[in-house]
Write the structure tokens for this entry.
Amino acid sequence: MPRKPDNRIGQAKDLYLKGLKLIDISKQLDLPEGTVRRWKSTYKWDNERSERDSERSDKNKGAQPGNKNASGHGAPPKNSNAEKHGLFRKYLPEETFSIIDGLKDRSPLDLIWDTIQIQYAAIIRSQQIMYVADRDDKTIEKVGTQDGNVIGEKWEVQQAWDKQAGFLKAQSTAVTSLKNVVKDYLELEGASRADAKEQVQDWKAAIIEIAKRRKERADGGTG
């Protein structure tokens, strides 16, 4: 059955759109600040707040009545000097700018969730790239040559145990980094620091639970 909506969400949103700070909203509604912050991220209040600010700004812009100084003038076609990310567009490759531009509608929770998925995928992919078959899995690679009076070649040898040790070290570092990101997500979602630290001990289970909650929200909060 659909869950009964929490009326306080709407009240908190109205106060936020009026310009109140999260801490003030939490005090007024007798809620934890983390809960209000989670609602703000989940329901993307910042988008509506930005639109309202933009509308107010547009109303306040423009020449005085009867002033024709700007008539017939303006930026040339395709000029991006008025765009929000004009500086980025000037210096960054178009592909990079497109990625940045695509992030503008992502909430903080969405951005952290993206990072979790990317890091988890990298850990899984590394299993194939850094795979060591057995103790005889030796890698010999030519890494350089020398010409002139003395001619020679330089080779690099990696024994199986060296490759395995390197893999374990890299894997441990990657998992630690992933656990920290998961903890950041849980705290932003509203969990206390201590609770988030405890949940992330079983980081795979924590990621699964996060994915379930995100799916429930995407499905409209049914369950």
Q: What stands out?
A: Strands lie at 139-146, 152-158.
